[in-house]
Amino acid sequence: MSQEKPDQAQASAAKYAAYPVDRWREAFAAVTAQVAEITGVQAAVVAAEDRSQQYSGQFSHIRPNATQAVELPQGQTSHAFPLPPELLNRNVLVEITGGSETKSQAYYSNSLAVQLIENYGQVRVTHSGTGQPLPTVYIKVYAQMQDGSVRFFKDGYTDLRGRFEYTSLSTNELDFAQKFSLLILSDQHGAVVREANPPKR
After folding, report:
1. Does residue 7 form part of some domain?
2. Are the C-beta atoms of 185 and 105 separated by less than 8 Å?
3. Is residue 42 assigned to a domain?
């Protein structure tokens, strides 16, 4: 699996599908399940108590690249207008101001389907059109701590299943985190920001 040869891993694991030691049999079954997930098949949970198994279940603000003032027609409750050509297929921030009230909404141009599995500190990234797992998608995680500070927590890349564990560290910083913000970035498929709560204990 570490050499990105899931077919060979599947062949090796199949030899031990009936191994008499539970711990090892489950380990080989987990390899089989991961290979199934890599190919886009919904994988089964091998050991429900293991947080590394497959489960099905914003601190930053986007600064716009350009702004445009649009005058709304009198007496209409809705109005459509085209985006400037330079903003097509780009992340945009739509802001509406009327009287003393302002509303804004970020739209991230991407083809990413993101599933957060908060109780296990995992994120799964697939292609929104095909459903296929997306490996090597960059994930950067920030945490809001109990004292109110925001700090870099972890970063890395999704594995062949499109999964990344965003809370696992060798330190006890998770004990002091109140909320997470994840930047999910793919060179080919765009970017998205998601927020998540720490796993419940």
Report:
1. yes
2. no
3. yes
Q: What is the pLDDT along the chain (201 residues), one digit of tens a residue?
A: 777 788 888 888 888 888 777 778 888 888 888 887 777 665 555 454 454 446 433 434 445 567 777 887 888 888 888 877 877 667 777 777 777 788 877 777 788 999 999 999 999 999 998 999 999 999 999 999 999 899 999 999 999 999 999 998 888 888 899 999 999 999 888 888 899 999 886
The domain in which residue 35 lies consists of 1-54
Q: Does residue 115 lie within any of the structural domains?
A: no
Q: State the virtual CA torsion across 125, 128, 134, 138 in degrees, nearest 10.
A: -60
pTM above 0.85, yes or no: no
In a domain, 33, yes or no: yes
Tokens of 105: 């909404």
DSSP secondary structure string for all residues of the chain: -TTS-HHHHHHHHHTTTT-SSHHHHHHHHHHHHHHHHHTTPPPPPS-TT-TTS--------PPPS-----PPPTT-S----PPPGGGTTS-EEEEEEETTEEEEEEE--B-EEEEEEGGGTEEEEEETTT--B-TT-EEEEEEEETTS-EEEEEEEE--TTSEEESS--SSSGGGGEEEEEEEEEETTTEEEEEEEPPPP-
